[in-house]
Write a structure and sequence with these properties.
The complex is a heterodimer. By secondary structure, chain A is mostly beta strands. Chain A has strands at 4-7, 10-13, 19-25, 30-38, 44-51, 57-58, 67-73, 76-81, 90-98, 105-107, 111-115. In chain A, strands 2, 4, 5, 6, 9, 10 and 11 form a 7-stranded mixed beta sheet that branches. Chain A has a 4-stranded antiparallel beta sheet with strand order 1-3-8-7, with no helix packed on it. Chain B is mainly beta. Helices cover 0% and strands 56% of the residues of chain B. Chain B has strands at 3-7, 10-14, 19-26, 31-38, 44-50, 56-58, 64-68, 73-78, 87-95, 103-104, 108-113. In chain B, strand 6 and strand 7 (64-68) form a beta hairpin. Chain B is globular. Classes of the chains: A mainly beta, B mainly beta. At the A-B interface, strand 5, strand 9 and strand 10 of A face strand 5 and strand 10 of B.
């Protein structure tokens, strides 16, 4: 149980295009999902917290107009990187909190984004 | 605000030797503490977590960690290292509040020497 999937697992796009990444909780309901960004050989940096049916809460320094987050259902959150540039290339990881357990987050396998 | 400090960005141990990865936390209220492992190009897998029950927590793959409030530490140990333990390990902290977020340490790369 408690499986989180991400799609796609990797994506290469041209500069200026938009990319959508999906995060799904497969066997549980997730009222809260989190989006992280990880640069090579570095830790995870929380970008935003996404609550189902409401606007995401962005961390300081994260551009909400560039990283659009939608959490339309209890099992799906999406992150759209708009007008991507090479500096947006990174490993994006989502996690989902099971509404039944306190503070345990289950992580997706990550999405490698490369912007040319 | 809570924070986590992992001592040593790289740790090397011989196969069969004791593994010790250090983590100190800072929190104004009782925290939840976690250890995660990450293999290359993969997401995070929970090794173990402390949620105010027993101070010695046993996790998967033979790992365990002890919560020491007096030392604000939550070090990860394994009695005998295996080659498959080579990975990145993250210590993380969260407040005992279901709406709060998890803050990660910078990570420690564990190398296993044959």
């Amino acid at each position: 149980g408690a499986v989180v999937s991400q799609h796609p697992s990797w994506v290469i796009c041209k500069s200026g295009t938009s990319v959508k990444i999906e995060c799904r909780s497969l066997d549980f309901q997730a009222t809260t999902m989190f989006w992280y960004r990880q640069f090579p050989k570095q830790s995870l940096m929380l970008m935003a917290t996404s609550n189902e049916g409401s606007k995401a809460t962005y961390e300081q320094g994260v551009e909400k107009d560039k990283f659009l987050i939608n959490h339309a259902s209890l099992t799906l959150s999406t992150l759209t990187v708009t007008s991507a540039h090479p500096e947006d290339s990174s490993f994006y990881i989502c996690s989902a909190r099971d509404s039944r357990t306190y503070n345990e987050q289950f992580f997706g396998p990550g999405t490698r984004l490369t912007v040319l | 605000a809570q924070s986590v400090t992992q001592l040593g960005s790289h740790v090397s141990v011989s196969e069969g030797a004791l593994v010790l990865l250090r983590c100190n936390y800072s929190s104004s209220v009782p925290p939840y503490l976690f250890w995660y492992v990450q293999y290359p190009n993969q997401g995070l897998q929970l090794l173990l977590k402390y949620t105010s029950a027993a101070t010695l927590v046993k996790g998967i793959n033979g790992f365990e960690a002890e919560f020491k409030k007096s030392e604000t530490s939550f070090h990860l140990t394994k009695p005998s290292a295996h080659m498959s333990d080579a990975a990145e390990y993250f210590c993380a902290v969260s407040l005992m509040n279901r709406d709060d977020k998890i803050i990660f340490g910078k990570g420690t790369r564990l190398h296993i020497l044959p």
